[in-house]
Amino acid sequence: MPTEMECELKSDKVPIVITPSDERISRLSRLFEDEFGHNPSFYVRVPGRVNIIGEHIDYCGYPVLPMALEQDILVAASLIQEPAIYLRNANSKYKSFNTKITTYEDIKITPDGDGKPFWYNYVLCGIKGALEHLENNTENGLQLYIDGNIPPASGLSSSSALVSAACLSFLYAQNVSMSKTEIASLCAKSERYIGTQGGGMDQAIAFLAEKYCAQYITFQPLQATSVSLPEDAVFVVAHSLAEANKAATNDFNRRVIECRLAAQILLTLHGIPTDKKIITLSEAHNKIGKSLEEMIQLVHTYLPKDIYTKDEVCTILKIGEKELENLYLTANTKDINEFKLKQRALHVYEEALRVDEFRNICNQSSGNGKVNGTNGHTTNGVVSKNETLAILGKLMLKSHESLKNLYECSHTNLDRIVEISQKLGVHSRLTGAGWGGCVVALCPKNLLENYIDILKEEFYDKHCNIDKCDAHLYVFATTPNHGAIIYKN
Ligand code: ADP
Ligand code: NG1
User: Within this chain, do residues 27 and 133 fall inside the same structural domain, yes or no?
Assistant: First the structure.
C-alpha cells in the first residue's frame, strides 16, 4: 500500500501532508512563535533546482531538463485577519519587512540603491501574483518566517523558490486549490514583476519535480515527463564563487530581446507576415515549418552579420525606433543600440537539439523510450553504458562552449571549473542564467570522490583561497528531489 505521502506526491495538486518531526522545522517554528506569539498554522517547502541541459531556451519556447535539489526555501506561515504581510527571515542579513496589502496593483516592486531588488521584493512578487489571481478578493494577510538554504544568485533558482513559496503560502492560507501546472504558471508570471523575463523553467520544476528523476519540461502547454538519469553517474554542483543577481543588470533581458528580434527577422525575411506581436524562436520555427537543423541554416542565411544596429533592425522590420522599443524591448533594454542576433539564435536552436538528444539517450539507456538512431552515436540503436556517459558528457560540454562563446554568459571561474573537470574526464557546463553561479558536472560514480577532492584542491583552495575543509559548502553531489510540498498541523 502506498503511504499518504506517496499518494500526495503523485497527485496533480501540491501535496499536503502532516508536518514531519524535523529539526529545521522545529527551529523555524520556535523562531516564528518568539516573533508572532503563536505557532505557525502551516509550512511550505519549495526546492531549488539544477538544470542539467537546455539553458536560455525556456523563454524561447523550447523544452528543458532540470531536476529539483534538496536545498530549499522553507516558510512557516499563518493567515491573519488583516490585509498586511509581516515578513521575517532566519538569516539576519535579510532584514524584517512589514507592509499593508490592498490591491495587487498597489504592490510596487522597486530596486534598492544598487539597482538590485530588496530580498522581500521576491516575496511581494509572489503575493502580488496571488492577489491578482484572487482578483483582490480578500481582506486577509500573512505572517511569514523564511528559512532558505539555496545558495543565492547562483543559478540554482533561489529567487523562484522564494517567489513560489510566497505565492503558494498566500493561496493555501486562503483555501485556494490549484493544479501544480496552474500554480507553476502563475508563479512564473509573478516573478516577472521583478523585471526579468524568465521562461518558467524554475517555477515548473519547483512544482512538477519528482524524486529520483529529472523532468523534460515543455511549455505551451506546460507539461513534465520524467527522465531517468544514468545510474552509473552522479550530477555534481560546484559553485564558482561569483554571484550574479539577474535583476540587477540588463544582461538577462538583453538576451531575451535579442532572441525576440531574431525570431521576428527570421519570419519577416522568410516572407511570412507577422502581426508585430512578440514571437519566440520556437514560434518562428513552427511557422516556417522546417527542422531545427534547417533553422540553423536559415539563421546563417538571414542573419549573417555579427552585430545589428537598432537602425538596421528597424529597416529590416520596416518600423520606427520608438515602435521597436514599444513592441519588443523591455524597460531596461530600450537604450541598447547593438544586438547579436545570429549568435543568440544559433545557441538556442543548437541547444534545443542537444536537449532532445540528451533525453533520447537517457530514455534509451533506461530502456524507457525510442532511440533517435540518426545521431551517429548509436550502433544498431543500442548504446553501451560507457558510450552513454561519453555522449551525454559531450552534449554538456558543447552546451557550455555555446553559452560561453555564442551566448556570452559564462564567467572565468565557471570556465576554470569546466577545464579542471575536463582534465579529470568529467564533462560539465554552467547551469542557470550564468555570469557566475554554478557548474553542473556529470561524474561517473567511480570518479566521484576523487573528482570532488581535486576540485576542492585545484579550484577552491588554490584558486579561491578556501580551506579544503570548508569547500564542501560549495561543491556537492545531488540526487533529484520531489517538488513543492505543504505541511499542515
Ligand atoms: P537565483 O539564480 O538564485 O535565482 P537571483 O539573482 O534570481 O538568483 O535571485 C537571488 C536573490 O533572491 C537574492 O539576492 C535575494 O534577494 C533572494 N533570496 C534568495 N534566497 C533567499 C533567502 N533565503 N532569503 C531571502 N532572500 C533570498
Ligand atoms: P536562474 O539562473 O535561476 O535565474 C534564469 C531564468 C530561467 C532560465 C535560466 C536560463 C528566471 C526566474 N529564471 O534562471 O527561466 O531562463 O535563467 O536557462 O528568470
Answer: yes
